[in-house]
């Protein structure tokens, strides 16, 4: 897994084999999300729309949206609302504005209740219209409106004075009188053009007063994030963290999966691979007590990172593999010898394979057997945490049976050292794998019935590593 690409089939295998644990974690995440939602009171949001008549550019609308949420407007709204303990700075965090299509500024307010949210939006909209009108000159300040009107009156009076001067000029046709009247007419025309440009430049001529398009609607639902969203987010977050945790653990796993790695850790050679019928991945935790029951209940006693078992080739093909292993042992040990079949505790697949291997060696002991001379095998279980192998007595060697991807290099090296400490030479190892399909009954004993009980560790007298 450390070198494999993460694929959808890997994630599917996690969901299929660890669905109980993932369900529990999702429920825990939902509870955490519910508890987090209690720390955040519900909030409600509503909007009030302000229409800006006339021609407006996009940057001008953005400026008006900034003005709507400015401290001047929000402070005036806070002073009008007079909510206890709520200042203009706090309200500024609850108010937002954006420019919409059609020269509309949409002002949104958020509060703890629907009534407050509605009042906040309406009040900010009204204060924005009043402040914008004051900026545009449409206010009650007499000094701001008297300037253009006084200038127009002065232009009218000047135009009348020019007319009087033109009539009082020499009515003759002298050059001087004609030039004087011409200059007066030019001055009148210039003043009229100036008044016209002043009227065109006045924003009040082409932009009417901003209008609040009705009161804000009272919100009927909470603003995001709601309590339901907190619960769903907590469940999804814990589920994702669990999946990512499984993938990360598999990435950093040091369990050996290939024959060369296992051979290097045990310091021995591979004698063959055998198959064990089984419908699912092997279980590596056997025991009693509350912790073991909880692990079985959550499904964490089942390996998820092992591939699905391949279809079985039939009992005959499986027995051929066991016989080939026995034949290689006979060739490696010409004389009839006794060997210990060492199986790591918790490796259910290896335990069943060792039982079948012992059964095949016993079946060959009859005089009519064509393969007479197989070593006599005895299976023993060894703890990987404190490996202890029986001392050398009648057995003069050890055969290690294990499943791939189950043990680290350090654990296998500990088993090899325990064998050496007990005086047993590791003559080789056998890799067992699970296959789909139930074994058919043959004339001989079934594999499960033929598996002898592993030797108890309490009777071992060898050293430990």
TrEMBL record:
The chain crosses the membrane at residues 21-40, 230-249. It is a multi-pass membrane protein. Signal peptide: none annotated. Residues 438-465 are annotated as: Disordered. It is found in: Cell membrane. Keywords: Cell membrane, Membrane, Transmembrane, Transmembrane helix. InterPro entries: Bact_polysacc_biosynth/exp, LPS_length_determ_N. Residues 4-66 form the Polysaccharide chain length determinant N-terminal domain. Belongs to the CpsC/CapA family. This is Wzz/FepE/Etk N-terminal domain-containing protein.
């Amino acid at each position: 897994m450390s070198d494999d690409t993460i694929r959808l089939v890997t994630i599917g295998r996690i969901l299929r084999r660890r669905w109980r644990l993932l369900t529990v974690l999702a429920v825990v995440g939902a509870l955490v999300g519910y508890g987090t939602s209690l720390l955040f009171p519900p909030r409600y949001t509503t909007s009030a729309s302000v229409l800006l008549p006339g021609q407006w550019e996009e940057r001008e609308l953005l400026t008006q949206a900034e003005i709507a949420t400015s401290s001047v407007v929000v402070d005036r709204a806070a002073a009008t609302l007079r909510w206890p303990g709520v200042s203009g700075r706090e309200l500024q965090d609850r108010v937002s504005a954006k420019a919409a299509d059609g020269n509309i500024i949409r002002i949104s307010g958020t509060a703890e209740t629907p009534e407050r949210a509605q009042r906040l939006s309406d009040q900010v909209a009204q204060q924005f219209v009043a402040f914008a009108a004051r900026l545009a000159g449409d206010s009650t300040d007499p000094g701001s409106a008297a300037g253009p009107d006084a200038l127009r009156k002065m232009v009218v009076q000047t135009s009348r004075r020019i007319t009087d001067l033109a009539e009082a000029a020499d009515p003759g046709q002298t050059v001087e009188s004609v030039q004087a009247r011409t200059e007066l007419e030019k001055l009148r025309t210039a003043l009229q053009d100036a008044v016209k440009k002043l009227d065109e430049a006045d924003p009040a001529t082409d932009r009417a007063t901003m209008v609040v398009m009705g009161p804000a609607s009272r919100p009927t639902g909470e603003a995001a994030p709601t309590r339901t969203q907190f619960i769903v987010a907590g469940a999804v977050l814990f589920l994702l963290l669990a999946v990512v945790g499984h993938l990360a653990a598999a990435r950093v796993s040091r369990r050996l999966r290939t024959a060369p790695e296992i051979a290097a850790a045990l310091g021995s050679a591979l004698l063959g691979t055998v198959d064990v019928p089984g419908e699912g991945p092997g279980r590596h935790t056997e025991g009693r007590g509350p912790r073991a029951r909880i692990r079985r209940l959550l499904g964490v006693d089942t390996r998820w990172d092992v591939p699905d078992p391949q279809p079985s080739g039939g009992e005959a093909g499986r027995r051929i593999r066991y016989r080939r292993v026995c034949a290689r042992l006979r060739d490696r040990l010409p004389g009839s010898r006794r060997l210990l079949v060492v199986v790591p505790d918790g490796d259910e697949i290896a335990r069943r394979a060792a039982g079948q291997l012992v059964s095949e060696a016993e079946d060959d002991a009859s005089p009519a057997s064509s393969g007479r001379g197989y070593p006599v095998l005895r299976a023993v279980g060894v703890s990987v945490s404190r490996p202890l192998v029986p001392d050398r007595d009648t057995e003069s060697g050890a055969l290690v049976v294990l499943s791939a991807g189950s043990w680290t290099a350090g654990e296998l090296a500990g088993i090899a050292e325990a064998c050496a400490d007990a005086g047993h030479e590791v003559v080789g190892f056998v890799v067992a794998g699970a296959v789909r399909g139930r074994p058919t009954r043959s004339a001989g004993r079934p594999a499960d019935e033929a598996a002898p009980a592993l030797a108890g560790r309490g009777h071992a007298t060898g050293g430990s590593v």
